[in-house]
Amino acid sequence: MYSRGQASQLRQAFWTAFGQYLAPHPAAEGGKANWLNYRTGLKHVYFRMRADNRVASVAIEITHPDAGIRELFFEQFTLLREVLHHRVGETWEWRLNTGDENGRLISRIFKETAPVNVFDQNDWSELISFFKPRIIALDEFWSDARYSFDELK
Q1: Which helix (H) or strand (E) holds 31?
Q2: Range name among 3-12, 47-56, 63-72 with the lowest pLDDT average
């Protein structure tokens, strides 16, 4: 077991190392990307990477508080499902209404891997190998797909 402070330091060290590892990789549209805090340009649509002591995930999260609008965004992503799966090279999970860590209803399109532990430095290479190709593929997907959402802004 780790103290709260130790856990925070290990988590921060992992994400710092991951950010440094990806820093030289340009975004799909050229230029620098903030891989850890990726900006989709759409309010309430986020690309998120998470890791804890059991599982790691990469996700597209739609957090709009209005269920109808959240569903419209999810439906638009559904129209692009095959494009996304082709770009990432695998099938992801799709959940229209699921809870987040704060108990709010969100929609989530994601891929997970387990067992991994962000607090075990021996797992860091596995975590980086999981996150890197998927966040880069999401960026490539988004460089084309974002225009499909212009009418929903």
Answers
A1: none
A2: 3-12
Residue with token string 């974002």: 146
Instruction: Give how many domains the chain has, as a whole number.
Output: 1
Distance of CA 102 to the CA centre of its chain: 17
Inter-residue contact 92 to 61 (CB < 8 Å): no
Domain containing residue 88: 61-153
User: In terms of residues, how long is the chain?
Assistant: 153
φ, ψ for residue 111 (rounded to 5)?
A: -135, 135
Q: Could you tell me the two tokens for 81?
A: 């499902």
Are 67 and 83 in contact by the 8 Å Cβ rule? The answer is no
- Angle (CA) 73-92-61 rounded to 5° is 35
Residue 104 lies inside a defined structural domain of this protein:
yes
3-state secondary structure of 67: helix
Q: What is the pLDDT of residues 56-78, one digit of tens each?
A: 999 999 999 999 999 999 999 99
Bridge partners (DSSP) of residue 62 are 45, 107
With 0.90 as the threshold, say if the pTM is over it.
yes
55 DSSP β-pair partners? none
Lowest mean pLDDT among 11-20, 29-38, 55-64, 77-86: 29-38
